[in-house]
Amino acid sequence: MDSEKFKRIYGESRNGANGMVRHPLVRNVIYSDGVQDVAETGVYWALDIFATELPAMMRRCSEYMLVIKVCVKGSAARITATGAGDKVLTWSRDIDWTDMPEGDWLFYMSDDGDTFVIILPSEY
């Protein structure tokens, strides 16, 4: 993984998303071009977790938006998702090993009815 490239792309100032990409395995999940750029640095695994584990939980809890936080310390990570609505909703998953750079990285995921959309905070 190219940590410096990840940090540069993640930190870029963006004014919304220029386009969307459909997740190759979970067809009702799309993500922004900024998320695609970040994933290309070596973190497609995070998108796979978001796409396969979070939509069902969002629908079950009637949550329309999540704030996803990936906290990396050393070579381990903890992913947490917190609801943006009135309900107290928290989901988490521990990752034993990652080469994602150390730090706290945020993503947003929304339920748009037929699709789930993942974007970077700078694209909101």
Structure description:
The protein is of the alpha+beta class and 124 residues long. The protein is 27% helix and 35% strand. The chain contains 3 helices and 7 strands; from the N terminus they run H-E-E-H-H-E-E-E-E-E. The chain has a 7-stranded mixed β-sheet. Strand 3 and strand 4 form a beta hairpin. Helix 1 packs antiparallel against helix 2. The protein is globular. 26% of the residues are buried.
Structure characteristics:
124 residues, alpha+beta, seven-stranded mixed sheet, 3 helices, 7 strands, 27% helix
The profile of the biggest β sheet is:
7 strands, mixed
Through-space gap between termini: 26 Å
What's the overall average pLDDT, rounded? 92
Count of individual helical segments:
3
**Number of E-type strands:** 7
- Beta-sheet strand percentage? 25-35%
In which order are the strands of the major sheet placed? 1-2-7-6-3-4-5
Low-confidence stretches: none
Helix/strand-derived class?
alpha+beta
The helix content, as a percent range, equals 25-40%
Question: Which helices and strands occur, and which strands form pairs?
Answer:
Blueprint (H helix, E strand, L loop, with lengths): L2 H9 L8 E3 L6 E4 H7 L4 H17 L4 E9 L2 E8 L6 E6 L7 E9 L4 E4 L5
Parallel strand pairs: 2-7
Antiparallel strand pairs: 1-2, 3-4, 3-6, 4-5, 6-7
